[in-house]
Amino acid sequence: MSDQQNIIIVGAGHAGGELALAARQNGHAGPILLLGDEPGLPYQRPPLSKAYLAGDMAVEAIQLKPRANFDKAEVQLLPGRRVVAIRREQKRVELSDGSQLEYGRLALATGSRPRPLPLAGVAAPERLQNFHYLRTLADVEKIRSRFVAGARLLIVGGGYIGLEVAATAIKRGLRVTVLEAAPRVLVRVTAPEVSEFYAGVHRAAGVDLRTSADIAAWSVGADGSTLTGASLADGTQIEADLVVAGIGVLPNTELAEAAGLAVDNGVTVDECARTSDPDIVAAGDCTSHPSALYGRRIRLESVPNALEQARAAAATLCGKPKAYASVPWFWSDQYDLKLQMVGLNQGYERCVLRGDPAARSFAAFYMKDGVVIAADTVGRMQDFLVAKRLVAERLPVTAAQLADDALPLKSLLPAA
Ligand SMILES: Cc1cc2nc3c(=O)[nH]c(=O)nc-3n(C[C@H](O)[C@H](O)[C@H](O)COP(=O)(O)OP(=O)(O)OC[C@H]3O[C@@H](n4cnc5c(N)ncnc54)[C@H](O)[C@@H]3O)c2cc1C
């Protein structure tokens, strides 16, 4: 396309914000419009379950970039605008107010949304004032009024978000119960050894953590506007003043699907972030992309993926396609512990521990066919950096080498 044509970006989250600035950095000279259905500037989501929820961060501190960066790059920010349709034949998007905007190239960065929790026994879930998901700044504002010392917080879901909210709540003096349907926490992403460690940390901090918990019914207050608790299939009653659900996310692919783009567990993109329409790219949580490392398509829900894929999408839009081939990585902060994870552990044959979980500093390496396919590190930044290379470069190592904490992990890397 001519670099004078306009670029419209749908979704002003991590991917959309980065894509807008990167398109300018890549030399795009035409207008760049960044449309998002949330109010305000693009912001970071990770602090929503951590420092921002704790009240330790001002709202300005969670902005993705200061407004001046968008102004300088001449990115036109259009918050509070929802795109409801893509008319590919006319190269237009339609907004919820009925207006239409023409595009030269389009970028989809619509992210994901919380997976809805079935609320057995609740007649009118939309009336509930104390039941929330945690995805947006607006969600935090709603949670905050009841997020006070002494309140009984019931969290459904023992994944990252549920556990981070639990840690923040304990710090604020709430009484916390976590219900996880699976037999262990973090079941989708870690080995039993790491789950056990985190379960122990939360219980020691005072969380009433229940795994294999099957919620049979919810109780609702007399006026129908609050959940007062849940009864479990084993007969246990749990009372609550505030309920937060974190049971995963669903990619926002409906726009793409309705426009006839290929979608398969995310908007289907190639390694350069191109969708099945040559004029449309996509990036972030809403996409699935081919991973050369894992030999299959993957959909990631992480900030590093959103940012790096957005840069690849921007380069593609500017006629400088560059394959995106990063190794997936992620982090989670709970209490004083930093968990850093690299790679995907599905199909691992052996989990090797290095260091001592009791000392709150250890690493778990997931091995398959003599290489490390993924690793979790707790409080071990140096090991994490080496693990990233072990995974990315598929370097041959032995379990004995990984487990030997006296042997510097760095020595397993080829000499520079
Ligand atoms: C509480 C919380 C904690 C997290 N912690 C971590 C962490 O510690 N580390 C980490 O790596 N990741 C973390 N994540 C995940 C990370 O935030 C996401 O992977 C990241 O936000 C994905 O960026 P994105 O731009 O693809 O999507 P999003 O950030 O979801 O942005 C998409 C935007 O598009 C908007 N949108 C959707 N449809 C439309 C439409 N039709 N019209 C206009 N706008 C639309 C959405 O409202 C949203 O604002 C966390 C997420 C949450 C919610």
List of distinct ligands in this structure: flavin-adenine dinucleotide
What portion of the residues fall into strands of 2 or more residues?
Answer: 25-35%
The DSSP helix count reads 10
From the coordinates shown, what is the CATH architecture of the largest domain?
3-Layer(bba) Sandwich
- From the 3D structure, determine the CATH topology of the largest domain: FAD/NAD(P)-binding domain
Describe the structure.
- The protein is α/β, with parallel strands linked by helices.
- The protein has 3 domains: about 5-115 and about 250-315, 3-Layer(bba) Sandwich (FAD/NAD(P)-binding domain); about 125-245, FAD/NAD(P)-binding domain; about 335-410, 2-Layer Sandwich (Enolase-like, domain 1).
- Helices cover about 25% and strands about 30% of the residues.
- It has 10 helices and 26 strands.
- The strands form 7 sheets. The chain has a 5-stranded parallel beta sheet with strand order 3-2-1-7-19. A 5-stranded parallel beta sheet has the order 9-16-10-11-12, with helices on one face.
- The chain is globular.
- The two termini are about 40 Å apart.
- The mean pLDDT is about 95.
- The structure holds flavin-adenine dinucleotide.
- Flavin-adenine dinucleotide binds next to helix 1, helix 8 and strand 22.
